[in-house]
Amino acid sequence: MSEVVAEVRSLPGPERVDRLASLGGPEATRPKEAPSTGGEFPELEGAERGKVVLRLAPFPSGALHIGHGRMIFINQYYRERYGGKILLVFDDTVGSEEKRVETEFFGLIEEDLRSAGLTPDAVYYKSDRIPLFYPWARRVIDAGAAYVCTCPAETLRANRAAGVACGHRSQTHDATVSEWEKMLGNGYGPGEAVLRLKTDLQDPDPAFRDRVLMRISDLDHPRVGTKYRVWPMLEFSWAVDDIELGVTHVLRGKDLVIEDRMQRYIWDLLGIRGPPFGHWGILRVREAKVSKSKSYREVKSGEYDGWADPRTWSFRSLERRGISMDATRAFVLSFGMSLSDIEVPAETLYAENRKRIDATTVRRAFVADPVRVDVDEYPADLGSVRLANHPDLPALGDRDAPAGPSFYLARRDLVGRAGAEVRLKDLINIHLPDEPVGLAGEVRARFTSRENKRIPRLQWVGTEGAYPVDVLGVEGEHTRGWGEAALAAAQPGQILQFERVGFVRVESDWVPGSNPLRVVYGHP
RNA sequence: GCUCCCGUAGUCUAGUCCGGUCAAGGAUUCGGCGCCUUCGACGCCGUAACGCGGGUUCGAAUCCCGCCGGGAGCACCA
């Protein structure tokens, strides 16, 4: 055996692959399909092609956003890699006063998943499965590993911190059973009794001591109302459902690692072999101060422009900005399965998107915060000019841009340039007046020459045919300005590049011909 | 504080399991040059990293020990 290993190791890498391939087998011919940039994805323990079952468990409290990226794309990646299945299981146990389940998000989340190319193979709702958990709870009780505790929450917590037991822990099995039946039979009110798992009270991790399995809540659940009063805690529900649903691998964020331990502990005491776990660290985009509760508040109040508001950094907002799902996926997968928390600048995502859209995106002139400039001695033959739609790609064609003698120029291009000579890009050079540009009014400039000088080149829009444009920015701000005449032919959903501004996407609901042209800023 | 996890350039990542092919590769950012009259793209060039200290070894990013730093969890939320 070890001789064979030594022999194989002595072979150079490529030859190893060749030799492997010659031996046949499904894995040999496709060693691994690593994403283009970095990102390492290990084999899943014991995974068999076609038999992998994964699950996705979002809590329905908002649209999916960039922070959910790893959950979505990593699970999707492994489904593809092994040809498996993904179950969408809504974790809609009753929640709490602060964390309410809301039905509108079920559909929203499914839509988001579909738009991410992740159509689940099946959809489940935890709230439909509540009765299923009761016999399982009974199994744990019968194994002597659970008890009903009627201590107030504070006492329970204090005991846990101190590592001491309360009187309920030593109840007989019969007493526990009758207490449990009392819980199920409305004998206790919310907060008055819980079913707790017996672990080691001296466990070094205080968080792990005698955790709660089931509790009582009479919150009105939007799907099942007050039909159930005894609800499972997340980790118990998963200890059950990962088995019941035949999940083969649990891939989730590292915030849930303690739940692994809980699930394994329960499985061990029931003599069940459960699936292995995998985790990833938190992904943050530096510019995205994503807060689900803030987004929720602002969307509800109307402060945000729905769940596609750029400030939510939701998937739908990225799409609205012209950032393709493909780019987002590549971006997220480039981080691999690393367990470290990562904070990455949005620029990395933008670069990924730019690669994909640059070659198909036409250039257009846009001037924000416009100042009207009239040019004296303007050449009579320059009523319009022919411009290429893309500087490097003639295939994208060209268009006619109405020019002077009157123009809109951006105020920020004019300030500090009093008395200077500047170039109207692709057109002429002009001399700006010596007086600084005021806040209002017009500017009179003078034509100087046509030659292509290496002087500041400014974006311009001829006043004739200029099209009003409203740009929605990443911070939710609106910028008004003038775009060139060709924008009248823009199409909903089209991605454009405003020169010296960046990529924008025409709003899907924009009606061609209506004023102003509404676009959403994507990125530089 | 307790538990677990993680430390490779400005940022992200490959390499760590199984020490040599790593005087550390890729992506992004930044700087320079060229070219294209643009945000930018492309080409070429450049800056820049194994957290610190010991140990093992002919040889350490990789193994061992100790520090230091960062993160997550510590709910009758999910």
Model description:
There is one protein chain. This protein is of the alpha/beta class. The chain folds into five domains: 1-31, no CATH class; 40-280, 3-Layer(aba) Sandwich (Rossmann fold), CATH 3.40.50.620; 284-359, Glutamyl-tRNA Synthetase, domain 2 (Orthogonal Bundle), CATH 1.10.1160; 369-387 and 399-462, Ribosomal Protein L25, Chain P, CATH 2.40.240.10; 467-523, Beta Barrel (Ribosomal Protein L25, Chain P), CATH 2.40.240.100. The protein has 15 helices and 27 strands. The chain has a seven-stranded mixed sheet. A hairpin with a 5-residue loop joins strand 23 (467-472) and strand 24. Helix 4 packs across helix 13. The radius of gyration is 31 Å and the shape is elongated. The protein binds one RNA strand of 78 nucleotides through helix 7, strand 6, helix 10, strand 11 and helix 14.
In short:
Helix content is 29%, strand content 23%. With 524 residues, the protein is α/β, with parallel strands linked by helices. The strands form 7 sheets. A 7-stranded mixed sheet has the order 12-25-26-27-23-24-13. The chain has a 7-stranded mixed sheet with strand order 21-18-19-20-14-17-22.
Question: Keywords for this structure?
Answer:
Rossmann fold, seven-stranded mixed sheet, Glutamyl-tRNA Synthetase, domain 2, disordered N terminus, alpha/beta, 524 residues, 15 helices, RNA-binding
